[in-house]
Design a protein that fits this description.
The structure is a single chain. The protein is α+β, with helices and mostly antiparallel strands. It folds into 2 domains: 5-251 and 438-469, ATPase, nucleotide binding domain (Nucleotidyltransferase, domain 5, 2-Layer Sandwich), CATH 3.30.420.40; 303-393 and 476-508, 2-Layer Sandwich (Nucleotidyltransferase, domain 5). Helix content is 40%, strand content 21%. It is built from 18 helices and 23 strands. A 6-stranded mixed β-sheet has the order 3-2-1-5-14-13. A hairpin with a 3-residue loop joins strand 1 and strand 2. The protein is globular and about 65 Å long.
């Protein structure tokens, strides 16, 4: 008999990807499709939920077609989705708002007001595992109530892209505990929607979806089977959030295992056996399975910072790369490699979209510090890579205070295509980093939850048995010393600009 096949669906920030997997981690085929992000006002970042659903249906259909051509079929599908999205619905279940993404900071003033009124605002973090920040749906609901009362009043339900997609596929409106734990509304200890926050927001528990396990499943609706080519009635597993599923997908599932991801954004995470919060409020804690939690921190600006550098300063490189038949980022990386560690004194603070962990400052803005006449495009590219790695280091240092030192660090995300960037991260963290043989972290992690739900795999720790290491990057002595010195300067620049960040963010919103 041929091995069982499940499709992992990863609904991300800028696109959706579907990958067909066997339980041993072998991928059989994949499809992906992008969708737009709309920024109509400063600090806003929103999407059309129906464009996302259309893209999801399309990639599933493409994968089903490929499977059929090879004589295989999917026995189930499981969903990974981006954390912290927000969508309101009317009483018929139709959206009343656009989908607000994690990058949407429109509720910043609401968060400031909450911090002024509640001197013990860290108590919200201690209950929910979510620092008080505008990215969380809790703050977005508060913004909607205050700034758009007419929409708030005709909105009967509040959810996310995950529960919207699951309802489209199965007809049932529920949300998994993982996405719920990343909403800023879910009590990690009572395992229910936080009563104090419901009162503050003037909403009832019935306005939020019922919370279910990340291995919960429902049969696929006949209509969606016709639209995707899947078999009607096959199980659809609700899955978890993309960030925590990365650990599963890359095999970082044992005590002390850390994952470090740089894609559009970036994150450092470690699995724990219970909710784990930081007394200083620097890290978050989200659910993965009924018995596993993930402590970590995420940065807003990972690959998005290098994309900004490419789009605005490397148009020539894009044309040259196209003629050579190579990726433009590969060419940029080759330029940056010619510059010594430290970019000859140029430091990038890559706060293009504010910042999350560990300082949770939505007003932070990008800074290029130390520019001289000797600096050129090559220095700027390398400084951008280094600046993102400084951000990752700041999370690692905070997280290790909470969870203890890392036993192993595995990496994932689009940045692993750059050997230079991987080496910079190893040097900045002063730790070995391992590149696994699987880079579809979230999609594979979702499929694993499907295999667990079906009883094919025992639990998520099974991935440690067959996800292997392809390459290890070790820190080098000269670079380590350089980055430790520059990280200290970078840190002082950040803290010395607190009022200036607030003032320039306010000016930009005028």
């Amino acid at each position: 008999m041929k091995p069982s096949v499940w499709i992992g669906i990863d609904i991300g920030t800028t696109g959706v990807r579907a990958v067909a997997y066997q339980a041993d981690g072998q991928s059989l085929c994949a499809a992906s499709q992008d969708y737009p992000l709309y920024t109509p006002h400063p600090g806003w970042a929103e999407q059309d939920p129906n464009e996302i659903i259309g893209a999801m249906e399309s990639v599933i259909s493409d994968v089903v077609t490929s499977l059929t051509q090879s004589g295989r079929k999917a026995e189930g599908v499981s969903i990974s989705s981006v954390f912290h999205s927000f969508l309101a619905y009317d009483k018929e279940g139709e959206p009343t708002t656009t989908l607000m993404t994690w990058a949407d900071n429109r509720s910043q003033e609401i968060v400031r007001e909450m911090k002024r009124i509640d001197t013990d605002f860290l108590s919200i973090y201690r209950r929910t595992g979510c620092p008080l920040h505008p990215m969380y749906p809790m703050a977005k609901i508060a913004w909607l109530r205050k700034e758009r009362p007419e929409i708030f009043n005709r909105s009967s339900y509040f959810g996310s892209i995950k529960d919207y997609a699951f309802r489209i596929l199965t007809g049932q409106w529920v949300v998994d505990r993982s996405i719920a734990s990343g909403s800023g509304l879910y009590n990690l200890f009572s395992l229910e929607w936080d009563r104090e926050l419901l009162i503050y927001l003037s909403i009832s528990e019935e306005a939020l979806p019922n919370v279910v396990s990340t291995t919960y499943s429902q049969p696929l609706r006949g209509e969606m089977a016709r639209r995707t080519g899947l078999q009607p009635g096959i199980p659809v597993v609700i899955g978890a959030g993309d960030g925590v599923l990365v650990n599963v997908g890359i095999g970082a599932v044992r005590p002390g295992d850390m994952s470090a991801t740089i894609g559009t954004s970036g994150a450092v995470r470690m699995l724990t056996d219970k909710p784990c919060t930081d007394e200083k409020g620097r890290t978050w804690c989200y659910n993965l399975t009924d018995t596993v939690w993930v402590a970590g921190g995420a940065i807003n600006n990972g690959g998005i910072a290098l994309r900004w550098m490419r789009d605005h300063f490397s148009e020539t490189e894009q044309r040259v790369a196209e003629k050579l038949g190579i990726d433009s980022y590969e060419l940029m990386s080759s330029y940056a490699k010619k510059i010594a560690p430290g970019s000859e004194g140029l430091i990038m603070l890559p706060f293009f979209t504010g910042e999350r962990a560990p300082n949770w400052n939505a007003d932070a803005r990008g800074v290029l510090f130390g520019l001289t006449l000797q600096h050129d495009k090559r220095h700027m590219i390398r400084a951008t890579m280094e600046g993102v790695c400084y951000r990752m280091n700041s999370i690692l240092l905070a997280l290790q205070e909470v969870t203890g030192p890392a036993r192993e660090i595995r990496v994932s995300g689009s940045f692993i295509r750059s050997e230079l960037w991987l080496q910079i991260l190893a040097d900045t963290l002063n730790q070995e980093i391992n590149v696994p043989n699987v880079n579809e972290g979230a999609a594979f992690g979702a499929a694993v939850l499907g295999f667990v739900s079906a009883g094919i795999l025992k639990d998520i720790s099974s991935t440690a048995d067959f996800v292997t290491i392809e390459k290890t990057y070790k820190p080098g002595a000269p670079a380590i010393k350089c980055y430790q010195e520059l990280y200290d300067i970078y840190n002082r620049i950040y803290w010395n600009l607190q009022q200036e960040f607030t003032d320039i963010a306010a000016f930009g919103k005028k």
